[in-house]
Hints:
The complex is a heterodimer of chains A (359) and B (395). With 359 residues, chain A is α/β, with parallel strands linked by helices. Chain A has helices at 3-7, 17-38, 40-48, 69-72, 104-122, 146-155, 173-182, 194-207, 226-229, 235-246; strands at residues 65-66, 83-88, 99-103, 128-134, 143-145, 159-165, 189-193, 218-222, 250-255, 265-267, 273-274, 279-284, 297-304, 314-326, 336-343. Chain A has a single domain (3-343), classed as 3-Layer(aba) Sandwich (Rossmann fold), CATH 3.40.50.12780. Chain A is built from ten helices and 15 strands. In chain A, helix 8 (194-207) packs across helix 10. Chain A is globular, with a radius of gyration of 21 Å. Chain A starts with a helix and ends in a 16-residue tail after the last strand. In chain B, strand 3 (80-84), helix 4 and strand 4 (106-110) form a beta-alpha-beta unit. In chain B, helix 1 packs antiparallel against helix 3 (59-69) and helix 1 (25-40) packs across helix 5 (117-130). By secondary structure, chain B is an alpha/beta fold. Chain B is 41% helix and 22% strand. Chain B folds into two domains: 3-192 and 380-392, Aldehyde Dehydrogenase, Chain A, domain 1, CATH 3.40.605; 194-368, Aldehyde Dehydrogenase, Chain A, domain 2 (3-Layer(aba) Sandwich), CATH 3.40.309. In chain B, the strands form four sheets. A seven-stranded mixed β-sheet of chain B has the order 10-11-12-9-8-13-14, sandwiched between helices. In chain B, strands 1-5-4-3-6-7 form a six-stranded mixed β-sheet, with helices on both faces. Chain B has helices at residues 25-40, 48-57, 59-69, 92-102, 117-130, 136-140, 151-159, 170-176, 201-206, 209-223, 244-262, 267-283, 327-332, 348-357, 384-387; strands spanning 6-10, 74-77, 80-84, 106-110, 142-147, 163-167, 186-190, 194-200, 234-240, 287-293, 297-302, 318-323, 338-344, 365-368, 378-379, 382-383, 389-392. Classes of the chains: A alpha/beta (359), B alpha/beta (395). At the A-B interface, helix 3, strand 1 and strand 14 of A face helix 8, helix 12 and strand 10 of B.
Amino acid sequence: MSVVEKLLTEEPFSLSHEEKIQLYETELGNLTKNSYANCSIYKKILDILAYDASAEHKIEEFPFLPVRLFKEYDLLNVPKETVVKTMTSSGTTGQRVSKIYLDRTTSTNQTKVLTKICSEFLGNKRRPMLIIDSKSVLKDRNMFSARGAGIIGFSMLGRGATYALDEDLHLDLDAVNAFLGKYAGEPITLFGFTSIIWEHFFKELERVDTKLPLDGAVVIHGGGWKKLIDQQVDNEIFKKSLASRCGDITVLNYYGMVEQTGSIFMECECGRLHASNYSDVIIRNPDDFSVCGVGETGIVQLVSLLPESYPGHSILTEDIGELIGEDDCPCGRHGKTFVIHGRIKNAEIRGCSDTYERK
Amino acid sequence: MNESKITWIVGNSVPKYIVFEPYADVVCSFLGDLSQNLLKNKTAVQYPDIISFAYFCRKANIHKKKENFAEQKIRLGRGIIFHIAPSNVPVNFAFSYVFGLLAGNGNIVRVPSKEYPHIEIICSAVNQVLEDPKYAEIKVSTAFVRYGHEDEVTEYFSSISQGRIIWGGDSAIAYIRKFSLPPRGIDIAFSDRYSFAVIDSDAVLKADEKEMERVAYAFYNDTYLMDQNACSSPQLVVWTGNHYHEAQQRFWNAVSAVAEKKYTLQPVSAIDKFMKLCIEAIEKPSVMGVTRYGNVLYAADLRELPDDADKLRGTCGYFYQYLCKDIDAIFRMVNEKYQTLVYYGLSPIQLSEFVVNNQLRGIDRIVPVGQALDIDVIWDGYDLVRTLSRIVDVR
């Protein structure tokens, strides 16, 4: 039985600090050795860092790859023939996208772990699921964009998955009302991307001045705040605004990267993002990548036990975050808790070869 | 030409044709007044690069340059010089203007489109000093302008100028050269250049603590002040001598200590550097290892000097280093891209003999550590005052 399989028999937020360290030092060692042996690019990087993959290391000593590297290179630990699914980040046109290669095991583990983590917040019974997106996102089944993968992953957590938006991302109130009528009295789940929910669901409800009877529903959303921060919308405003249109609902944000699909970080009832048994978070000081303590702001490194088919078990994101605590959240769950403050700012570098701005 | 597309920051129309002899008294006096005006301005002196500009312009310094100039021939400014300043160096436009002025020309200066506070401060000082009636001639022959993406304006200014100074990269130069000057017009184009340092390891080890600190500050100023992204900032350090390892450690420790104190490393630069390290591990077999001094300084060891060493470029404190047993080896790599050689612990005469005796295509400057960024009337291989003036040959 693999470590992930073993963990799946336990509650998803059960490991204490000591247990986690013990487990992770062994498992990250295995994942690192595996990538070192099977991914030539990974090996080159560790070699230049003079990193000894065969030695024992503390959890914070394991090397990390910058997420941008997944946009530049095909990083795999397995032969391409065994890849069953390729996931991509959702970049806009012209942007490079990350390509993440999954074999059967990694893909299956991602699904199981996502289900496990979410069951903690949704219960074990599959609830009717309203997806705040358009079915058309799923058209190309060969390339799973982060958005498409999220929808597929989360829709499996519920039943009767219904799409609230039409092809043009317009709110289909008839479909929504039919769904609510069919499952009246049952606790339902809403899933969607933060910016899509805001732009195409909440704003549309405002525009047509409609309220939806969603008391008892749980709204799970993720995908980043970039677009909403521009509109001065934070988590607090997001929650209040949705509640004003949907009644007594629970709104839970999640944080995760396409590079580590499955082992997402869920926001608990106390408003903190939680690392589960399957993942960990380390905040690093930008000055020297040293480890930040509670309350110190730094660059977010994410660790996951799931990536086996690609070297994504330890990645350096481009997000700025802050640790709130570990094993001490009032919600009672174990694991580190943290908050994300947003993306790092682009650099303005001085220099003299930038003279003439063209059209 | 549609003048409504132009914002006049100094002056309000196309400059009149008024020329002087190089280092004309009125010009020297004007620069002295400009220097004083800036140094008295409490806002201005908060910017180190404005202070260096003001120091450059002060009376005694200009006087010294005039004496060094020691021209035997009669010279006169060429006419109007059109300056196209780089957008990411705040004060270069001002230096460029001074060079045009010292050579005896009227000037049109296109200032950076970015809203640096430096521009407002320097331009308002220029305006104030130009109010003095004794500078009336300079006033009517000076214009500082800002305009957007209008090719039409660049084309027009080029057509009426006897000289043009193009700062910036190769692609910018190629672009601007599409707009012709009059037949006798000259271009001075500052293209993409590459600079490196040669440091003697024995000299580093011999230095006492105080000297080491001085050298570290000097190297810091050569590089980090412009995010290591100026053409004259060293990208590569070539080590000579016998005790590399100790010398390298001592040197980089000292430089990184200064940088930690003085340099603001943006988080994104920390990630960019680490990303660059990963890419080099994957793609550059000549890089054999990297020593990291926190995130503020990376030193990448080269196994050999590749033929295209001028492509080894870092920013914000990412250096390459190479141990050189035979100094001839490094001169073989020098092509026309090479601009500044920064040295420590070596004889500049010996270095210049290397350049001359080997008939090198590049290296226009050989300067001690700490002077890489010191812009002057001789720059990038040009004597700017002579190039921007014409000779009246009298026999």
